[in-house]
Specification:
CATH topology: F1FO ATP Synthase
Family: Belongs to the ATPase C chain family.
Oligomer: single chain
Strand content: under 5%
Main location: membrane
Largest sheet: none
Distance between the termini: 11 Å
GO molecular function, one term: proton-transporting ATP synthase activity, rotational mechanism
Shape: rod-shaped
Helix content: over 70%
Radius of gyration: 18 Å
Number of domains: 1
Number of helices: 2
Order of helices and strands: HH
Pfam families: ATP-synt_C (PF00137)
Protein name: ATP synthase subunit c
């Protein structure tokens, strides 16, 4: 039974990292595209747009980092294995 729990944990960790990276990747792509469009329209406000972009990208990236942490917990500190 422990072997099955370990296999399921490995598969769940793979899904957590795989699916947890798709959302942030799409969101970051849209954010960068919108920021570049805004900078192209108003080049004089590029500094403010860039600062806002970097803060937004950091917020978006936290979701991928949380998925990585959950996957690492499942792999190395699994609470389901005795």
């Amino acid at each position: 039974m422990d072997n099955l729990v370990q296999i399921v944990s490995i598969v769940a960790a793979a899904f957590a990292v795989g699916l947890g990276a798709i959302g942030p990747a799409l969101a970051e792509g849209r954010a960068v595209a919108a920021a570049l469009d805004a900078i192209a329209r108003q080049p004089e406000s590029a500094g403010a747009i860039s600062r806002t972009l970097f803060v937004g990208l950091a917020m978006i990236e936290t979701m991928a980092i949380y998925c990585l942490v959950v996957a690492l917990l499942l792999l190395f500190a699994n609470p389901f294995v005795r």
